[in-house]
Design goal:
The complex is a heterodimer of chains A (about 600) and B (about 400). Chain A contains 20 helices and 23 strands. Chain A is an alpha+beta fold and about 600 residues long. In chain A, helix 12 crosses helix 15. Chain B is built from 15 helices and two strands. The radius of gyration of chain B is 21 Å and the shape is globular. The chains are: A alpha+beta (about 600), B mainly alpha (about 400). Chains A and B meet through helix 1 and helix 2 of A and helix 7, helix 12, helix 13 and helix 14 of B.
């Protein structure tokens, strides 16, 4: 036992010896150095800001990147009392404001940003006076830059300064950081942002850097990912050109087989670069007070009455239920339809039509009767089944589902049975409370053209990190309850719309286009003009939904715009990019960053 | 009074006084006075421990053990703590069941091992002792509190050695677990495996060496599979303990601050209450886990070595008490208690000096905390009981 006592004592002495040796090393051998480091804690953590990822169109056209900008930062513990007023004067911030900015963080020996995007002249003045400004630094920071057309302001969105609440919630954010506030910038915030690196430097008593801290390796920043969008800048620009005369409009173009969005426009727009520098009150006021609400993303957040573009849905639902065949003829149209003691109007006296003719001529009388035969419940149930009243799932924050008023909805809105039996007539021609977004309509018509296969629309085709592709979006397809034989009839009707019906304005010659016009009543203001068309008519590759607010007839205003866009899409000037490589990724892969993003605009989105 | 040893009492009280000074300096008067209130309670518990009849204590070993295991299970369900389940909160008091589990485990192990004349490397001798230590150890590990859970391995090893098991056999007994722990990375596993292989070949002969290495290899191979089945944060936590030098963020900020504090104390320190690191708020938990850092800063190398000397004195007296104890259960108790205090001292100071990973383990007698102070005083009280009172 004595031997074991000796042995255990030896182990104890060994352990104490290790600790003592380390103490001698730290306190005697390196003691002077540590004493210096501990004097006012001369270690400073410097942030190495990660450049935010770029955003490119499908052909590599740059839509968002970063440019350098100068930021003035202050280490509060090093700033002397005499330096503060001097600094305030040099960078033109009232002294009390500057003091207030530094107050809550006065304990820390890390720099605090006090003013960003200072001019070169200001930088020069600060550098000149640097010996009187201990603890003041000028840093080069990346600032977001949107070189593309203003029409990207909704789809790409913009970034904005973090709020105090966000700073509290997310500890990885710092004061004066910018985060995505709308569109793709918000949706893919975590991927775009990257991760800031840090470096620990030793500084002397005057706050001058001596060099990196030996004990702590710098942590390199991780640049944000690049996003390659599905948008084609050429089509996007053409859409803007075509919409030039109209103050309020939305256009969505989408590849019908994949869901890749080709163009995405919502008017009015604004220059997203205004958010990058301190915004001028005038600019802000004019944006905020504009009655057309520039921040409102009409393509996905505005529920519009869809007018006659509803009719193919009614036709498909009625055919599927057997309430109708393609040869069914109802009471002839004499410019209206008498129901109860009311007359429901039609655009002209169409006479007796079969289903294809009724679609081509957009005859209300025919669809009033089809709607009656189908019944309110079947009609609304079917409309929901084909995606109306539901989100499309686009990778963009703020999408609204529109509305398909069911019996229960009408009861709760107007009181039980307080609404007219004529509601179904209105719904059958897309009036009344039936609303949808342009994006929803594009997806719906894409599905009609493609055998009932609805796609999930997406804006980001590919995500690259450090030049390496880390994600490729794979189309998600959802079969809608549409029978091939019914689709054949409806597609024929939609072809006739462009051939000789209400949508002849969309004709562009060599390409066969099918589509549907819609003229949605919007009393007391002028009608909204709809056209949704796809091409080629037999096996569509692309669909465009065009909505122009208060512009009149869809066939006159919107159909020509869609026709031009379709022609541009197929024009040989541009070779369509190869579709995303579907074999490379799993079918259920969705972009990693689909976390809820903050609401985009300061205005409450509402139906126009 | 058979053989009263004043050294135990003096060393303990000096350590506790050191602790009070350090808590006052680093945590301020609030924690100082709270600890001051705990102290008489702890002394009272120690006095009770001196006079409790050991026969009754040994008789209660199983119920006490069962009770602490139950508490460990309960704390997993209902406990709180920073990112873990370590404490019960009863009004103003935080109770840490793992503190009491250490004592209960030593007690039951001592009672069981004392019946054995020899302990060989076989299932008959080892199944029960290993199980007794493993149950609380695993329960503490999932709290998660890896560093505390390893205390049970340390005290088991020390007690097995004291009862006559050969060091080589102890190494063999622990090698599968060590291999498993080292197996999370090839950089730790290959050196471990080489050292183990050399020791076994030199000391145990070819056959035993091959068997030992084979079993170790099997466990080492298991661990990558276990690792890959864990969640990311769990894996990060394990990696940061097993292989802190692979931490992609480099040495932890706290560890650097702690080293700066200690290093800047130099030979004689900055003087009591003159430390600057802690005042600026750079040290976290500065009155609990990091209390040694402010001692090092204010009292310097001289103060630190005096403190280590006090620990040496106390632990040496505990081992001598084990040597001179008349009953073998009591003797084993002293060794197990010494292992607990020695392990915590080494791991806590080692992490603050930057040679061990930062984990949440307290410095006995010095760190602020009622449960810990109470337990450590009871341990010393029981050692005094063993040396001074006939069974």
């Amino acid at each position: 036992m004595a031997a074991r006592l000796t042995r255990l004592t030896q182990v104890l002495l060994l352990l104490l010896g290790i600790l003592s040796a380390r103490l001698v090393q730290l306190q005697l051998i390196q003691g002077a150095r540590y004493a210096r480091l501990s004097d006012r804690n001369r270690i400073r953590k410097m942030v190495l800001p990660a450049p935010r990822g770029r955003i490119l169109d499908r052909n590599g056209v740059l839509l968002a990147d970063t440019r350098p900008s100068f930021t003035v930062a202050v280490v509060p513990t090093e700033l002397t009392d005499s330096a503060l007023p001097l600094l305030a004067r040099l960078i033109d911030i009232p002294e009390p404001d500057l003091r207030g900015q530094l107050q809550p963080v006065a304990m820390f020996a890390s720099p605090v940003n006090v003013k960003r995007d200072v001019s070169i002249a200001e930088v020069a003045r600060i550098e000149e006076a640097s010996f009187r400004l201990p603890g003041v630094h000028v840093r080069v920071d990346p600032v977001r830059n949107y070189p593309g057309s203003n029409s990207y302001c909704h789809v790409i969105g913009h970034i904005g300064e973090v709020s105090k609440e966000e700073l509290k919630r997310d500890t990885s954010l710092r004061q004066l950081d910018f985060i995505g506030r709308a569109g793709i910038e918000a949706q893919y915030e975590s991927l775009l942002r990257g991760r800031d690196g840090s470096e620990y430097v030793e500084v002397d008593a005057r706050g001058q850097e001596i060099g990196p801290l030996r004990e702590k390796r710098p942590e390199p920043d991780v640049p944000g990912c690049d996003l390659i969008m599905t948008i084609d800048d050429r089509i996007q620009r053409l859409a803007c050109e075509l919409l030039e005369p109209y103050p309020r409009a939305a256009v969505v173009g989408m590849e019908t087989r994949t869901g890749a969005i080709v163009c995405f426009v919502s008017k009015p727009d604004f220059d997203p670069n205004i958010f990058m520098t301190p915004i001028e009150a005038e600019t802000w006021d004019s944006l905020i007070s504009n009655p057309s609400k520039p921040f409102f993303n009409r393509a996905i957040t505005a529920g519009y009455p869809i007018g006659s573009t509803m009719k193919p849905v009614v036709a498909l639902g009625a055919l599927r239920q057997g309430a109708l065949t393609r040869y069914t003829r109802f009471q002839p149209c004499f410019g209206g339809f008498r129901y109860g003691n009311r007359t429901f109007k039609c655009t002209s006296a169409h006479g007796s039509l079969d289903l294809v003719g009724a679609i081509a001529q957009s005859c209300n009388t025919y669809f009033y009767q089809a709607g009656l035969r189908l019944g309110l419940d079947s009609l609304t149930a079917y409309a929901r089944e084909v995606g109306l009243g539901r989100l499309t799932g686009i990778d963009m924050p703020g999408e609204k589902p529109g509305n398909i008023p069911t019996r229960a909805w009408l009861d709760s809105r107007y009181g039980k049975n307080k609404w007219g039996a004529g509601s179904v007539l209105n719904f059958a021609i897309g009036q009344g409370e039936v609303t949808a977004t342009p994006l929803q309509m594009a997806v719906l018509y894409g599905a009609i053209g493609n055998g009932g296969r609805a796609v999930r629309p997406y804006l980001v085709a590919r995500i690259d990190s450090a030049g390496r592709t880390i994600h490729t979006t794979v189309p998600e397809i959802n079969q809608l309850p549409m029978r091939p034989e019914d689709l054949e009839v409806v597609k024929l009707g939609l072809e006739r719309v462009v051939e000789y019906g209400t949508g002849t304005g969309a004709r562009v010659g060599e390409i066969s286009i099918a589509g549907k016009t819609g003229t949605a009543q919007n009393p007391p203001r002028p009608d909204h003009a709809w056209f949704i068309g796809y091409a080629p008519a037999e096996e569509p590759e692309v669909v465009f939904a065009v909505l122009v607010e208060n512009a009149g007839h869809g066939g006159v205003v919107s159909a020509p715009i869609a026709g031009q866009l379709i022609r541009a899409y197929f024009s040989p000037a541009v070779e369509p990019q190869p579709e995303p490589d579907t074999a490379a990724a799993k079918p259920d892969t969705t972009p990693a960053a689909t976390e809820a993003a903050p609401e985009s605009s300061q205005l409450e989105p509402q139906d126009p | 009074m058979k053989r009263f040893d004043p050294g135990l009492i003096i060393a303990t009280l000096l350590l506790a006084s050191f602790g009070l000074l350090a808590i006052f300096s680093s945590g301020g008067s609030y924690f100082f006075f709270r600890q001051l209130i705990f102290l008489p309670i702890a002394v009272g518990a120690a006095v009770a421990a001196i006079f409790v009849p050991r026969r009754i204590l040994y008789g209660l070993a199983e119920p006490i053990y069962a009770l602490t295991v139950l508490m460990l299970v309960a704390v997993l369900v209902a406990g709180t703590g920073p990112g873990s389940h370590r404490w019960f909160v009863l009004g103003p008091v935080y109770i840490q069941p793992s503190e009491f589990a250490k004592l209960a485990t030593v007690l039951l192990l001592a009672k069981h091992l004392s019946y054995k004349r020899t302990i060989g490397l076989n299932f008959r001798d080892l199944t029960l002792p290993v199980a007794i230590a493993a149950v609380p150890s695993l329960l503490v590990m999932v709290e998660p509190d890896l560093s505390t859970s390893l205390i049970f391995a340390a005290l088991l090893a020390a007690m097995l050695y004291w009862q006559g098991m050969r060091p080589l056999h102890i190494l063999l007994l622990f090698s599968p677990a060590l291999s498993f722990a080292a197996g999370f990375s090839l950089y730790t596993w290959i050196p471990f495996f080489l050292v183990l292989g050399i020791i076994l070949l030199v000391r145990a002969g070819v056959t035993k060496a091959l068997i030992g290495l084979g079993v170790s290899a099997a466990f080492g191979l298991l661990s990558p599979f276990v690792l890959s089945s864990l969640k990311d944060y769990q894996r990060a936590r394990i990696m940061s303990f097993v292989a802190p030098w692979f931490d992609p963020h480099g040495i932890s900020w706290n560890a650097i601050q702690s080293q700066i504090a200690i290093g800047s104390g130099r030979l004689i320190g900055k003087g009591f209450l003159q430390g600057t690191q802690k005042r600026l708020g750079f040290l976290p938990n500065r009155h609990t886990d990091f209390v040694f850092s402010s001692l090092g800063e204010e009292l310097g190398l001289v103060g630190c070595l005096i403190l280590l000397g006090l620990f040496y004195w106390l632990l040496r007296r505990m081992l001598i008490a084990a040597r001179h104890s008349g009953d073998s259960t009591g003797s084993l108790l002293c060794v197990g208690f010494a292992a607990i205090i020695g392990y915590q001292m080494f791991v806590n100071i080692g992490m603050l000096l930057g040679i061990l990973p930062i984990t949440g383990i307290t410095l006995p007698f010095l760190s602020y905390g009622g449960s810990s102070l109470l337990l450590n005083f009871i341990l010393v009280g029981l050692v005094i009981n063993v040396v001074s009172r006939p069974e």
